[in-house]
Amino acid sequence: MKKFSRYLCYVTVFFILSGAFSQYLCSETIWNESFTNNKNGWYTDDFIKVSKGKYVYYNPANDCSAWRTDKLADFEMAADARWVKGAQDLGYGFVFRLADRQHFYIFFIAANGFYTLGKVDGAYTALVKWTASPSIHKKTNNKISIKCSGDRIQGYANLAMLFDIRDASFTEGGYGFFVSKNIYIEFDNLLVKTLAAEKTSAALSYKGRVTTFGKKEVANFEIDVFQILDVENFIITPVTTLKTDSQGYFSLPCEKGKAYYLKPRQDKKAQYTKIIDTNISPEDKEIEIRIPNGGIK
Length: 297
Hints:
single chain; mainly beta; Jelly Rolls; 8-stranded antiparallel beta sheet; elongated; disordered N terminus
């Protein structure tokens, strides 16, 4: 274990794909840790301690972190994370699939009710930007969990899904905790289980294009993609951000049985809604997004 620092218009597109959700086949428990003592040799130093049945992190000046070096590929990791005091807008949570201090994923929540998912691959990249969630309890205890199977990464807070994305940058690695500077966090009830591969349907990919009403292609146009967790109440979670190529085209990866919402990054609002007929295969249907001529700033 080691320590390390750290216009156009709004276009609304819905589409729902048929099929059942994937199921995990089996699991093996690696850790079921209550931190009543440190007989399992969790990393400690002046800022990280096993104390009174908690794994305590607090460094007023610097980030602090620790991880197990045994490599896990497909797994689930969950723990209680109690915010005691300190910064409310900085993150704490898990590192996972960690190869070294320059290559890993990181899942954070914050005491102000936000969460994020990122990866460090030499430099930091946000896979899910900081997003507010009513499922995160502010300035108190939260049960957080992460599931990894293949390139699929799912994050939860208090059993509510926060995100469900795919990224294949890292396939296995170590796992542990990360707490930003000046936050006092107590971890408890750590559960780590291996997971067998998922039964998944073939991934789908819709082709789309962004053009002006005059049919001129719009290059380097960014579109935020969200998964719709609850269609009736329109509860969404970020998935990824797409960017069109030089001809205005983009490719949208998606899964059967899920609904998605596309929101272009714009300067001005306008009326535009499009429903994708899910009975039409991606090969036969192109997502068309049109914007006003000269509307891009």
